[in-house]
Design brief:
mainly alpha; two-stranded antiparallel sheet; 2 strands
Length: 1187
């Protein structure tokens, strides 16, 4: 078998390589002169070097072209195959032995003897990368190689000259004629000259692959040499260094290339069938199959892809012919049977009909043979091709065959290919398989029970766990078809239905139909339980749409929805261990926004699809109805049907909690719709505004009733309070007659605030109060409720202050600590609503507690000093301190706001008030320093205290221009408010705290930090104690711990960066600048977020920000992080022309240089507070950073 082409695994890659002797054809023709590099030695060297460079980028790609995904015929493939990225990187040209057989034409014995002198190997056998062109004599193909300069990338369509020479190619892709007309024209040429027309056809396929080398009529008439001839074409094609070809090209000229190519060959097969030439001239189809089949196994992707597309289009057309023949045979047999059953038989007609039926059967058998041959030659090998585009085309064609000829292709023999490629590594291929399966299953799902039983688990797995969202969406659609056919197991239905809680919005939207149908099944079952739809129509036929307080027919729908949501919510709770969020200390010192619950996420996507959710007033009426009375009424037999209905719709407690969240989401989408829903309502905006106003008034009346029923449960009450946030309070502001309704609502909110100590509920209540205070007409009403809340909290705190010293840690028992914590928690919420300076500065009326409330709070901060650890009481003690710190921070922020207004109005500030305020500030800073300096490791309170200490010192930097400017005589006394934090803290406390935070995060992300600088002292701070269950954490829990460590580090860094920029720390003293230097040490080691925060210490970066120049996106992200992390923002003043960091380095050895190096002292001017600074630049430095 010397004539057969060696398997690709036995050949070199796709580069031309040396051959020991020129190849001679067996036909009576002279071989062309071989190309030799000797006459152009210098150019050959140049070609070699360029070819070597091309090999690394392109030929390695060609080597892998014919590698296959080895799927067993009995086993489904796994995900261990090649990924898409490997298509371009792998260097493996293996093809299974079946591909070799495809490339090996059949030969007679005589032909073997005649051509036995030819060497079979066209290229030297190479392992790995092919040799360069300059190595040894060049083994070129037997054709004249095109002499063209090589480029890094070329587009594949053949040159205009070559295309013009091929009439068929020009007519298919350039004439604009219909494919049927083009096929008819080619058939006419075939009748005139079959060899020339067939050559033109095969050359058209080569041109479609981007190959300029063409076949001759002699090549077509020499089938035994077809494999070797293709090798020559491949080698010539490789010399062009083309990296693109029409089928994958994105140029405008290639836009409809595939459709035209496929359409032509489909029309060609139809013409050949209609003219019967396909049956009379068997050589025609054999020749086409031979060349297309050999090209489909080529190592070159353009050849292989184009030939596979052509072969699949021919197969599709032949299968359509088979369907036509089947229909014809069926009709002829029916006619034959009808005619045979008649009394007066027409023997001539029967004979003619029988001949026609026999002829059609013979044609059907012939076509069936050709289809099977082409299927085995092309599809069986290419469905597992390394190129995912080829695999996807094979699956698309198979899906078409199954739909067109289900009698043949809807069998396990063919459907197994669809099942196997469900595990394909490429997203596009998996999507194509799911698309074809959806088409097939919609038509005949019941007939595919065996296939479904085998591959249903994989489909469910793709819907629930696939890594690509688009694949999950497509898989859900397929699984929904199976659900409609009743082919899913109950546990599979549950696993897919739970996707309504999925984190991906596209997945949730995709499963809405599946979930809605499931709920509808529950509704139908419940209707049957109560007697059927006729009974319901008789009982509720005349019910009014606006009547929500009595039993309604659609309450059955709400009950079914609640049951399903409750079941799947409970299943998720059982499967997932909730990850602990927030601080180890119970106090939520960050007061972060609570994310939406899974019930809320599900309700959002179900809102438009399910009227049970969109009509939220029905849900409210269902929840407000007293279902307990209906159970007692069962003893009355006056209306057994109504009693049965009331019993059927009565909710469980868990279902009520779920329906409250659904109600909150429905109200939000109705009164404050998302962008998507808002777009849908734009066409009827006026009607919607009127409905929205009416619904708002109705909701305001429903909230107090809901609170009255569910107010005893903190979680449910918090959900109800959330409803107030969606009210448009302009309605109450404009319509004074409705103020009584809102007054009642505020009264209920205040009652819930006093009644509970749940943080989530208190946050919702405070948000409602803040929402109301945004409207001027309602501000007085809110303040009256606030006064009562303040009175209750102050009395509670002063009552504790009378019986014990609140500034000393460890002097209270657990019960008293809990009481104090609850009181301070409420105070920490109230201070955020409105200006509380007067309330907190008011002295007490009792002798036992006569201090202003703010002094008591500052004293409570002193409890943060940790002298002796107590495992039982440390957490509640720290919780109390955290609430006190938060309350003090907001007091200082309100106080600074008043101070700013007084200075802007040029008002006098009494010395007594100022002295008290300075002492209060100093006491708070000292207590904060004692809190974080008394702890040996970074617990949450230590980090919180450091951040607040930085914030407090930054609040007063707006005073600098007033103290040093024209108003210095009047406001110079405020200088004591600008006192920096003690310089000794830098080395002793701040740097150790930063270092511990860095080490904790570095340990989480497994990074090694930079070594300390020589002059830095070793740090004694310990890392936080590790959890004993650290090794047992799940991957998700480890990720949550990593995020928390990064959040702690970035928030701490942001506080320190802003304090450094505000010059309230690290600005004076012997260690000035040391913290800045320390913070940038690990700038590039701890992630992008930390790097972006620390970037603000870069003077060049600040200069660009001040100048208005744009920076990279990542810098903007860091700016946002730094701003959000601080309670008191620091803003760069864009109005200043001079840069605060634009200091010119003094000449070495001058007095200024020695002063900067602290080798000489600064001259001290007398009466510094009374004089203006001599250097205007220094004044600008102070003014640049505002509050």
């Amino acid at each position: 078998m010397l004539l057969s082409r060696l398997p690709l695994m036995e050949t070199s890659d796709n580069n031309a390589s040396s051959s020991p002797a020129p190849r001679r054809s067996g036909r009576a023709r002279n071989a062309p002169q071989k190309f030799s590099p000797e006459p152009r030695h210098s150019q050959g060297d140049h070609t070699s070097s360029k070819r070597k460079r091309a090999q690394d980028n392109e030929d390695a790609d060609d080597d892998v072209e014919n590698e296959v995904l080895e799927y067993s015929d009995n086993d489904a493939p796994t995900d261990d195959g090649h990924d898409d990225n490997e298509d371009e990187d792998e260097d493996d040209g293996d093809v299974d032995e079946d591909d070799e057989a495809v490339r090996r034409p059949k030969k007679s014995k005589s032909s073997q003897k005649t051509r036995s002198r030819k060497p079979a190997a066209k290229r030297t056998k190479v392992n790995g990368t092919a040799p360069s062109l300059a190595a040894g004599p060049l083994a070129a193909s037997a054709v004249k190689l095109p002499n063209r300069p090589k480029k890094a990338a070329k587009v594949a369509p053949a040159s205009l000259a070559r295309r013009d020479e091929n009439d068929l190619y020009s007519e298919v892709f350039g004439s604009g004629n219909a494919s049927d007309d083009v096929a008819a024209h080619w058939f006419q040429r075939y009748q005139n000259d079959s060899a020339k027309a067939l050559t033109e056809l095969i050359n058209c396929v080569l041109l479609a692959a981007g190959c300029e080398q063409q076949l001759t009529e002699d090549d077509i008439q020499d089938p035994e040499n077809s494999a070797n001839r293709l090798t020559e074409l491949e080698e010539a094609y490789e010399q062009t260094s083309i990296s693109d070809y029409p089928l994958i090209s994105r140029t405008k000229s290639s836009k409809n290339f595939r459709e035209l190519l496929v359409g032509f060959f489909g029309s060609l097969v139809a013409v050949l069938h209609e003219t019967d030439i396909v049956y009379s001239d068997e050589e025609l189809l054999d020749n086409i199959q031979r060349w297309v089949g050999i090209m489909s196994s080529s190592a070159l992707r353009p050849f292989r892809h184009t030939a596979t597309t052509v072969a699949l289009s021919i197969l599709t057309a032949l299968i359509n012919v088979m369907k036509q023949l089947d229909d014809r045979i069926t009709k002829l047999n029916q006619s034959l049977q009808t005619e045979s059953n008649r009394r007066g038989k027409n023997k001539a007609l029967i004979e003619d009909t029988q001949k026609s039926a026999d002829s059609a059967s013979e044609n059907r058998e012939f076509i069936d043979t050709k289809v099977k041959d082409l299927f085995d030659i092309v599809f069986v090998h290419r469905y597992r091709d390394i190129d995912h585009k080829i695999r996807a085309e094979c699956i698309e064609a198979l899906g078409t065959w199954v739909c067109n000829l289900p009698t043949v292709y809807m069998s396990p023999e063919y459907l197994r290919y669809l099942g196997w490629l469900l595990s394909d590594v490429n997203v596009t291929t998996r999507l194509e398989v799911l698309k074809q399966l959806a088409k097939v299953l919609k038509r005949d799902a019941e007939k595919l029970a065996h296939f479904i039983d085998r591959f249903r688990p994989r489909l469910v797995e793709m819907a629930t766990r696939d890594s690509e969202v688009s694949v999950r969406v497509a898989a859900i659609a397929v699984v929904d078809i199976l659900r409609g056919s009743g082919m899913l197991e109950p546990e599979e239905v549950d696993s897919v239905s739970r996707l309504v809680f999925d984190s991906e919005i596209r997945v949730r939207k995709a499963v809405v139909g599946f979930f809605s149908e499931l709920v509808q099944e529950f509704i139908d079952n419940k209707i049957d339980e109560v007697g059927g739809s006729d009974v319901l129509e008789e009982l509720f036929g005349d019910e009014e749409e606006e009547e929500y307080d009595s039993v309604r027919k659609d309450w059955i729908n709400i009950k079914a929805l609640a049951e399903n949501l409750a079941v799947y919510d409970a299943q998720l709770d059982a499967e997932q261990d909730e990850i602990r969020h927030g601080l180890d200390v119970a106090a939520d010192v960050v007061n972060a926004t609570v994310p939406e619950s899974r019930i809320s996420l599900a309700a959002q996507v179900l809102y438009e699809r399910m009227p049970e959710i969109s009509n939220w007033q029905v849900i409210a009426g269902y929840l407000l109805f007293d279902h307990t009375t209906s159970s007692k009424a069962r003893s009355s037999k006056s209306n057994s049907t109504e009693v049965a209905i009331k019993k059927a719709v009565a909710p469980e407690p868990q279902e009520e909690a779920i329906l409250l969240e659904v109600l909150a989401t429905a109200v939000k989408e109705s009164l404050a719709p998302s962008i998507e829903h808002r777009e849908r309502r734009r066409h009827n905006r006026l009607d919607h505004e009127a409905q929205k106003e009416d619904a708002g008034l109705r909701l305001a009346g429903l909230i107090p009733r809901l609170l009255n029923k569910y107010g005893s449960d903190p979680a449910m009450a918090a959900t109800v309070l959330r409803l107030e946030h969606f009210l448009d309070l302009d309605v109450f502001q404009q319509l004074r007659q409705n103020s009584a309704t809102y007054n009642m609502l505020l009264e209920e909110i205040a009652t819930q605030f006093n009644r509970h100590v749940d943080q989530a509920l208190l946050n919702e209540a405070v948000t409602s109060l803040l929402h109301a205070r945004q409207y001027y007409e309602l501000e007085e009403l809110v303040d009256s409720k606030m006064a009562k809340l303040w009175e209750d909290s102050i009395n509670s705190l002063r009552g504790l202050d009378k019986i014990c010293e609140l500034s000393l840690r460890g002097n209270l028992d657990r019960a008293t600590l809990t009481n104090l914590s609850q009181t301070l928690m409420k105070i920490s919420k109230l201070v955020t609503v409105a200006d509380c300076v007067d309330v907190l500065e008011a002295p007490g009326e009792s002798i036992d507690s006569d201090q202003p409330l703010i002094k008591i709070l500052v004293g409570v901060v002193g409890r943060g000093r940790l002298t002796e650890s107590d495992d039982e009481l440390d957490d509640p003690e720290d919780e109390i301190v955290a609430f006190a710190i938060r309350s003090c921070l907001f007091f200082f922020m309100w106080k600074v706001q008043r101070l700013r207004k007084a200075i802007e109005s040029e008002e006098d500030i009494p010395n007594d008030d100022l002295d008290k305020f300075v002492i209060l500030r100093k006491d708070l800073i000292n207590n904060l320093i004692q809190t974080f300096s008394s702890r040996g490791f970074n617990d949450d309170l230590r980090l919180y205290a450091v951040g607040i200490a930085c914030d407090i010192t930054q609040l007063f930097i707006f005073l600098r221009p007033h103290i040093n400017g024209p108003q210095a005589a009047k406001y110079g006394k405020l200088r004591s408010l600008l006192e920096e934090m003690p310089a000794g803290l830098i080395v002793q406390e701040i740097i150790p705290i930063l270092d511990a935070a860095e080490r904790t995060y570095a340990k989480r992300i497994k990074k090694t930090l930079n070594d300390p600088v020589v002059d830095e002292e070793p740090l004694d701070d310990e890392l936080p104690p590790e959890d004993d269950e650290e090794e047992e954490l799940t991957e998700q829990e480890r990720f949550a711990a990593e995020l928390k460590a990064e959040k702690i580090l970035c928030e701490l860094a942001a506080k320190l960066v802003m304090a450094i920029l505000a010059k309230t720390i690290d600005h004076t003293g012997p260690d000035a600048g040391r913290l800045r230097k320390r913070m940038v040490r690990n700038k590039n080691k701890l992630g992008t977020n930390f790097k972006d925060v620390v970037a603000y210490l870069d003077e060049d970066y600040l200069r660009e920000l001040q100048g208005g120049k744009k920076r990279a996106a990542s810098k903007g992200k860091g700016k946002e992080i730094a701003k959000n992390a601080l309670s008191a923002a620091v803003v760069i003043d864009d109005d200043e022309e001079d840069d605060p960091f634009d200091d010119v380095e003094p000449e070495e050895g001058t007095a200024e240089d020695l002063r900067r190096r602290e080798l000489i002292d600064d001259p001290i001017e007398e009466d510094e507070e009374e004089q203006q600074p001599e250097n205007p630049q220094a004044e600008e430095d102070e003014e640049v950073i505002g509050d």
